[in-house]
Amino acid sequence: QVQLQESGPGLVKPSETLSLTCTVSGASISNYYWSWIRQSPEKGLEWIGYISDSGSTNCNPSLKSRVTISVDTSKNQFSLKLSSVTAADTALYYCARGSYDILTGNYRIDLFDPWGQGILVTVSS
Amino acid sequence: QSALTQPRSVSGSPGQSVTISCTGTSSDVGGYNYVSWYQQHPGKAPKLMIYDVNKRPSGVPDRFSGSKSGNTASLTISGLQAEDEADYYCFSYAGSFTLYVFGTGTNVTVL
Fold first, then answer.
1. What is the pLDDT along chain A (125 residues), one digit of tens a residue?
2. Which of A61, A109, A117 sits opposite B45 (nearest CB)?
3. Shortest CA distance to B93 belongs to which of A56, A52, A115, A109?
4. Which A residues, 32 through 91, put their C-beta within 8 Å of a C-beta on chain B?
5. Is A87 helix (H, G, I), strand (E, B) or coil?
6. Is A33 helix (H, G, I), strand (E, B) or coil?
7. Beta B106-110 vs B9-12: how paired, if at all?
8. Closest-CA distance of chain B to residue A46, Å
9. pLDDT > 90 fraction of chain B, expressed in percent and rounded
10. How far is it, in rounded angstroms, from Cα B10 to Cα A55?
């Protein structure tokens, strides 16, 4: 059974960089797409971006200038860095895998299953 | 890119049907058949319920169905059960620039 676990600091100071890692267990990180998604009371769910096992990435244009997503296949992990954070970046951050669509035989960016349990990151001095 | 618009809440009695709308534009919901729906219980991660407008992943009850008309997608829960009480979010592909956008979320209450 595939499991995802987010890790990283729960408190980040304004203007600093938020850094999170998602560790994948029970399956290889290969072939799939891996996303970061966040949730806050103010904005609801917000897709941040994805990375493939080969390292190709793309992200929400509203965050693009501040987001870096990377993958370490040797550790079966992928990571998120969000720079110049403000209080508006306070949220529950999830990592998720894009599913394999058995009907089409395609690996999908957008069908998120499974998800990690989420990690609350607060931006405050 | 604005979030897709959903009603804040809907409710129904056990056994009834409820429908949740998800309104976007021709640049997202109306332009592609890549609308999915997620169910989220309190304190839990979202769960994929419908994808590509009307397809159900394995294990999702057939009480859940999806459809789309123009710029509005809909999720219908038939034969409402107590465990269906949750928040529901739509999600859509929005083209090569914006990529993906979530809906504002709808709380379903089983009376």
1. 999 999 999 999 999 999 999 999 999 999 999 999 999 998 899 999 999 989 999 999 999 999 999 999 999 999 999 999 999 999 999 999 999 888 889 999 999 999 999 999 999 99
2. A117
3. A109
4. 43-47, 58-62
5. helix
6. strand
7. parallel
8. 6
9. 95
10. 41
